[in-house]
């Protein structure tokens, strides 16, 4: 593992350079005469003994990342359920199909295509003066996502797997209940609580999928999770086409969560990093041995896990291990600890700002693409597919150029085309140019969105990683809430706002440190010692 200039090559480099420790007779270690246990951090154990991304990590990564498709279902279902369906005249007086909307038509002179059950708009008449209620549902859904409870719970008692299981159960329940909503107010409430649980799906899935991956493979693995989200959106287009009724669609989009709980969750392991920081050393070592065996490697009995700050002390000769402790005192952290530390406080504020501006641009440009007035199912499908090349290109370049240059470059790439879009008209060839600017803007910001999760995760230690990611996710949800209000301004102004946001986001990213091939710290102490070394 490469180290940055000035970093301690012994603390977070090869564990083979660590000094020998005082021997200890512990069940399961089975040290031979004269041998002494060696304490290494998880990254070193993955690199030197278990394998960074072998068969075990691949299977675990794929199974865990399937949850991203579930998040896509519950988030993007509103596009189809809350759509404004077509209408037609029924032969009465006062009806003219040349009208752009039904606001000026006589009641009873027209009807919804597909009937009142085709969407919530048709069900409860959310048109004309009631149209704002559609935007209110979307805003409250993302508002529910902002309640980042599960990020904190996954860092503490529930763990990564427990939190992922909990949010999937809640999503399945809330999704099915939404299909039974008798009125708009109930529907609004159920979408809010669905947002509450949905906001934790991607977060818990991402951390659980990437924590057992070695440091040199973690970047590409982390960025690959977004393929599952885009695939989920594409699949949702097909599901929505098959189930045109909004009530049936909510049931159909919730059933995959139940299947995930029954068919996938039993085969997912808890994160060894979480076990380690919670003091469950036996459980952590059991998973590491399983990883080594599945990957065709051998984990010697005399090698044991340690938190990175303990590994630092052991390698520097500052700590004498009189006895190996199998069950250690649990170490936990909160967002207060992040803010208290000068290093993580600055990183948190920058990450929050970048996630906010990125979300405004991404969701804003996505809504502008819907204005193409093409087939809704096909448009959503093409939008999902269009993001995938950005994920691929960013993943390929991630370990070559690093996180920081890509974070700056992708945002400024998007900003350039947004500024160009704000200067073009919306007639003739200019309309085509503006559309291309929007697509290229989405392309760039999709790449940013892809690397933000892995970049943000690497900026913070294990004990507070999910809490910090939760704050960044909340900021992104605030951007998602703001985006529709920017879009309704129309003309070139939204492109101007998106360009400014992309420019500011790139500037904020320029103040973050590079994390390429840096160790993934477990504790606040380990991070501070490693950064100051």
Summary, kept brief:
This protein is 64% helix and 2% strand. It has helices at residues 42-50, 55-65, 67-81, 120-124, 132-145, 149-155, 159-178, 184-198, 201-210, 218-242, 246-263, 272-277, 281-294, 308-315, 335-340, 342-370, 376-401, 403-423, 429-458, 462-487, 493-509, 524-532; strands spanning 38-40, 87-89, 110-112, 303-305.
Written as H for each helix and E for each strand, in order along the chain, the element string is EHHHEEHHHHHHHHHHEHHHHHHHHH
Provide the helix percentage.
Answer: 55-70%
CA-based shape: globular
Instruction: Give the CATH class of the largest domain.
Output: Mainly Alpha
Structure in words:
The chain is mostly helical. The protein folds into 2 domains: 37-89 and 106-315, MFS general substrate transporter like domains (Growth Hormone, Chain: A); 332-532, MFS general substrate transporter like domains (Growth Hormone, Chain: A, Up-down Bundle). It is built from 22 helices and 4 strands. The chain has helices spanning 42-50, 55-65, 67-81, 120-124, 132-145, 149-155, 159-178, 184-198, 201-210, 218-242, 246-263, 272-277, 281-294, 308-315, 335-340, 342-370, 376-401, 403-423, 429-458, 462-487, 493-509, 524-532, and strands at residues 38-40, 87-89, 110-112, 303-305. The strands form 2 sheets. It has a two-stranded parallel ribbon. It has a two-stranded antiparallel ribbon with strand order 2-3. The protein is globular.
